[in-house]
Amino acid sequence: MVGVYLLELAFDGSPDRLALRPAHRERLRVLHEAGRVVLAGPYSDERGALLVFDVTAEELDAIVEDDPYYRAPGVKIVRQEEWNPIFR
């Protein structure tokens, strides 16, 4: 069943993730155009990011598995949770 999922990332300041960021953002753009990413972006202080997906749990697992950015040095998934928004 399709749901809304939050994915929160933490960055430790390592610059290693930056090499993977352009390809990661391109993946997010494609997913956004397909209606699977609702919102995505870093916090203003660059300590992490929040992504909101409109997918199944299995699709989210596949998205995370297919994108090496989520395993890059300096990137840690700190929260992956289904969310029940009141408005969509």
Automatic annotation (TrEMBL):
Gene3D superfamilies: Dimeric alpha+beta barrel. Residues 15-83 form the YCII-related domain. It comes from the Bacteria. InterPro entries: Dimeric_a/b-barrel, YCII. Pfam families: YCII. Belongs to the YciI family. This is GTP cyclohydrolase. It comes from Dactylosporangium aurantiacum.
